[in-house]
Amino acid sequence: MRPLRLAVMLEQALEVGGGFQQPLNDLLWLRDWAAKSGNEIVVYSPYPKTLEILKEFGVAARLRKFGVLDYLFLFLKYCGPFDLVQIALRLKSPFERALIRDGIDVVHFTSTSKRHLLLYELPFVITIFDGCHRDAPEFPEVRNFGEFERREILFGLASTKAAVVIVNAPELIDDLCRRYAMERDRAVCIPFSPSAYVGQSAPAADDAAVLAKYRLEPGYLFYPAQFWPHKNHITLLAAVASLRERGITERLVLCGSDRGGRDKIDAAIRSYGLSDQVSIIGFVESAELGALYRGAAALVMPSYFGPTNLPPLEAWAVGTPVIYPEAFKAQAGDAAILFDYDDPRSLADAIIALRTDGTRERLRSAGHLRLAQFAEETKTGHQQFARHLERLKHRLALTPR
């Protein structure tokens, strides 16, 4: 039986943050799987910068941009009736034709890609990180200008048509089965893993150099997140202002790219009079993240979107305590101080609780145990995914091309 030729699509830009780092982790595992199993992977990305980053990990990738005709096919696909025309004329998009020319058997989308809508002949694997447009439809980034409707089309077709659906939490499998009638046995749960960059140890002098670059002293509260409304920076700022009223001054460091929420955050900082307590250092290079986590007194993450997030695992990986919404207790377990993400005072109390004797040591130990548990679950998920890929290999060998 000939090797399975799997296309691995890395469609998220580096600036997306966790949406880039987790697919990178998936790719590195797939590279090892292919080498051990005698199968092949072909990596594609629309970003030249991604191709350069992959070279650091010894991975060769191909540039595959989205063409004008692909966008036209996608637009018509959203219109619905075009399906009938495409079926009747047996039309394939330029995107799919290019993959077929490359000898691809299965396409693995490492994010919830709209490009799966362009596939009529090739089977695919899809990754779904969350269902937050359903969980919190009040946020503009998942509601405005048809975004909610677009996601419904993507999620509905992806979860029912995909040969395999990769998720990061058991709760998400339940949601997809309930909302879209996904077949449960097609789902594979592979929890998030810390970024390959954060897991690398570094000399103390290198960490000090990173902090000096951003004019930081160790002991700050750290929140790495893009500036979206759902990231809930405003509640965090209100909590820091509340602490100052109690005579407690905390230093806060924010990093991430602006996704439309930065102006409101800047206004809140001025309104609360926190300019001397808050450092916004913008988007930082992946290699600097480990130092920023290690220099922090705690990761404070008030995001409304879950059920899982990558920063808590990265904080646990370097021994940094985590302060996290109680809504995501299923991920955090006992390895975080929990709070109500709609209540600044609850968050302020959580930050104070961090200073209680023995709390940091307890959280550090619990974080390492939690990370080990997720590592075992990830191993199980990888084994299950590998079995699905072998099943696809066998079935595709019976299908004429």
Automatic annotation (TrEMBL):
Q: Which domain of life is it from?
A: Bacteria
Which Gene3D superfamilies does this one have?
Glycogen Phosphorylase B (3.40.50.2000)
Name all Glycosyl transferase family domain ranges.
Answer: 217-367
Protein's name according to its UniProt entry? Glycosyltransferase family 4 protein
Q: Which organism is it from?
A: Bradyrhizobium xenonodulans
